[in-house]
Amino acid sequence: MKNLKIVLVLFVICLICAAGISGMYMLTNPIIEANNNKKELETVQSIFDSYDQSKSETITEGFSSSYISKKIIARDHNNNDLGTIYTVAGKNDYGNISLMVAIKGESIYRIEFLENGQSFGANVNSFLKTNFPSSKENVIEGGFVAESETFEGELNFSNIDSIDVSCGATYGAKLIMELVNAAVEDSKGVN
Questions:
Q1: Distant-in-sequence, close-in-space partners of 123: CB < 8 Å, separation ≥ 6
Q2: Residue (of 173, 37, 177, 178) closest to 118 by Cα position
């Protein structure tokens, strides 16, 4: 009988904790989702200054890679195509990376971090900023920010294979290359 009381008390405690956790999730999830959507919109607007969300098209399925979660066909207020922006994300043993890859024609126009959770985040940030067109802003979760030269202009698809991934965070650099290649292959229509 004593053991049954202990089991019941522990069960009730677990039930209360589970209800508290799920309640907190239900309260905070819409706020987190709204913040993520705001960050994504601000990133798209920083990539294409004249971006008009109401004229643009968002696709969320039918991609050639599981790395891709979203594709935005960006347009301005006159309905002119600005380019295509892919949201790509991946994970390795060192953390998560989420990027927005903007493509214009046969070139990578710009790449921006949405998340850089790599344990060697500063090195991954430097790799991206040095080898791909991106903003000068650093996005790193934790750690220090390393200064690096930034890539200027657009990167033609034919030059991607020549990028050297040897750096202080080679696995993070390889993950970035996989994410970028997924966006490029999808933009080419390669399955």
A1: 146, 167, 168, 169, 172
A2: 173
Three-state SS at 24? helix
For 41-98, write each residue's pLDDT tens digit: 998 998 899 999 999 999 999 998 999 999 999 999 999 999 999 999 999 998 899 9
Supply 17's token pair: 């904790």
Q: Would residue 22 count as lying in a domain?
A: no
Q: Is residue 41 domain-resident?
A: no
| Gap between the terminal Cα atoms of the chain | 63
Is 176 part of any domain?
yes
Domain around 84: 50-188
Token representation of residue 35: 């913040």
With a cut of 70, say whether residue 141 has pLDDT above it: no
Residue 21's CB: how many other CB atoms inside 10 A? 10
Query: What are the tokens at 109?
Result: 């126009």
pTM over 0.90: no
